[in-house]
Specification:
single chain; about 220 residues; Rossmann fold; binds cytidine-5'-monophosphate
């Protein structure tokens, strides 16, 4: 079973993916991690984020263990990591270099402890359109920019990161624009995706919408 969950930042993809991964024993691939790893590596090495060739070179050399190591850095999940990821993810050579790693994950899906999974939940922007166009179920999860910015702002506060709601909203809008308008794999629902707007729903209500869709595919 392969499920793809695409949509803009802080729409609820991660929470839904974790829930489905546990309930149906599916491995979880948060594909934003590959772009965050490349973006953060650029930042940490002082490389200009506009340098497409350097970004592609880092992407070609990136391994799964390196990505996991970079994910421990405090800026991996911060605004700095998110903006850097959004910039490098617009480069077609970066995307093509990172595609195989993402697709290969479904060939032998395993959990972190090495045990076998029943399939994969992919979370990202293009997992239903490019990474896994033959997925069993495709979801496109979205919410208004204001609702998503408030969710992300609260997450940052909980993690002790200092920022303001206005700054988070501004970053979110600029990231949405860049992700939606890039020429390579722009953020958009697959034609056969089910679109779910979570602006007015809590997580239990979202899950109640999704479970029957998954059960229908089992
Ligand atoms: O989902 P996350 O916020 O971690 O993604 C960081 C950035 O990586 C996104 O803003 C987007 O630019 C990029 N991304 C992408 N394609 C994916 C996943 C993430 O372009 N499948």
């Amino acid at each position: 079973m392969i499920i793809t969950i695409d949509g803009p930042a802080a729409a609820g993809k991660g929470t839904i993916s974790s829930y489905l991964s546990q309930k149906y024993k599916l491995a979880y691939f948060d594909t934003g991690m590959v772009y965050r790893a490349v973006g953060l590596q650029m930042v940490l090495t002082g490389t200009d984020l506009q340098n497409k060739e350097a970004a592609a070179e880092i992407a070609r050399k990136l391994t799964f263990p390196q990505m996991m190591e970079l994910s421990l850095h405090p800026d991996f999940r911060s605004d700095i990591g998110g903006q850097a990821a959004s910039i490098v993810s617009a480069y077609p050579d970066v995307r093509s270099a990172l595609l195989k790693m993402q697709q290969d994950f479904a060939l032998n899906p395993v959990f972190a402890d090495g045990s076998k999974a029943n399939g994969v939940v992919y979370d990202g922007r293009d997992t239903g359109t490019v990474v896994c166009p033959h997925a069993d179920l495709k979801l496109f999860v979205t919410a208004s920019a204001e609702v998503r910015a408030m969710r992300r702002y609260k997450e940052f506060l909980q993690k002790g990161m200092s920022t303001s709601y206005d700054k988070v909203l501004q970053d979110m809008v600029s990231r949405d624009q860049r992700d939606s308008n890039r020429s390579s794999a722009p953020l958009k629902p697959a034609e056969d995706a089910v679109i779910i707007d979570t602006s007015e729903l809590n997580i239990d209500e979202v899950i109640a919408v999704i479970i029957p869709l998954v059960e229908a595919k089992l």
